[in-house]
Amino acid sequence: MSDVVIQATNLSVDVQSKQILKNISFQVLKGEVLALLGGNGAGKSTTIKTFLGLMKPTSGDVSLVGVSVPTNPDVVRKQVAYLPESVMLYGHLTAIENIRYFLSLSGKQKSDEDIAVSLKRVALQSSSWHQPLSGYSKGMRQKTAIALALLRDAPILFLDEPTSGLDPVAIDEFNRLINQLASQGATILMVTHDVYGACHVANRIGLLRDGELVGMFDAPAEGNIDSEVVHKAFSQGSEA
Ligand SMILES: Nc1ncnc2c1ncn2[C@@H]1O[C@H](COP(=O)(O)OP(=O)(O)OP(=O)(O)O)[C@@H](O)[C@H]1O
Asked: Where in this chain does the record put each ABC transporter domain (predicted)?
């Protein structure tokens, strides 16, 4: 099982005696994109936070490349790039300044040429590279954040609602970039409400409902999404 990069094993998380994640288990293999789908409050962000070491399992474990996160939180810093729903970069700095600043915080040395290669790889127009991010669209900010993630050489990506607020062209570009990164060996876990979008980018889809993993299947080809699946993920408690 050496190809397993991201693994949750019988993971439960309680907060203030409320069970938020209930005994969930899944794996993401090297080069794979897994999308966890679910409605509001299903436990998607909690799952990511547990993998980032920001929340602790009440029981069970989460591991990255075979290393348990709760007992070795350093594995996150070394292996993971995380894109929250709202990319946290400085609006008054340019793309290049943001990248230089955040690389210096993580102790990485990269040349101007490396930075240019990364910005080209995510297809951020070079005319924007020296403009402050306050004038960027959400898609452009996201490309900058992905370029930074690439420069940090992080082989694991966690994405929280990555396409919310993007226009269809930006979503298409984003999906292509994610698939390209995965084909080059990145392992990607994304959480989303967007069942149709997830089918375009993910290899497999997990359904989270009320903290339980209620389904896991290969992403269906475009246009073949079973409405039962949508209902299963998004109906509340006893309705399903
Ligand atoms: N720190 C906390 N204290 C109390 N309850 C929490 C805490 N964190 C999460 N929860 C609860 O856990 C449940 C799952 O939350 P989570 O944010 O993981 O869901 P989500 O699937 O990401 O939802 P959304 O799509 O709305 O972002 C919710 O009912 C939420 O209120």
From this structure: 6-235
The CA distance from 205 to 233, in Å, is 11
Test site for ligand 1: of 17, 21, 44, 47, most ligand atoms within 8 A of the Cβ: 44
Pocket test for ligand 1, best of 12, 15, 19, 56 (most atoms within 8 A of CB): 15
71/57 Cα distance (integer angstroms): 11
Residue 71 Cα, ligand 1 centroid: separation in angstroms? 24
Cα of 20 vs centre of ligand 1, distance in Å, is: 7
As for ligand 1, residues whose beta carbon falls within 6 Å of it are 15-16, 20, 38, 40-46
Q: Give yes or no for a contact between 132 and 93, defined as CB atoms under 8 angstroms apart.
A: yes
Which residue type sits at 213? L
Which residue, by CA, sits nearest to atom 28 of ligand 1?
41
Domain ranges for the chain: 4-79+155-239, 87-153
Q: CATH homologous superfamily of domain 4-79+155-239? A: P-loop containing nucleotide triphosphate hydrolases (3.40.50.300)
pLDDT in tens, the chain (240 residues): 469 999 999 999 999 989 999 999 999 999 999 999 998 899 999 999 999 999 999 999 999 999 999 999 988 888 898 988 877 899 999 999 999 999 998 888 899 999 999 999 888 899 999 999 999 988 899 889 888 988 888 899 999 988 887 778 878 888 888 998 899 999 999 998 888 788 888 999 999 999 999 999 888 776 566 667 666 666 655 444
In this structure, the number of other CB atoms found within 10 A of the CB of residue 217 comes to: 11
Q: Whole-model pTM?
A: 0.87
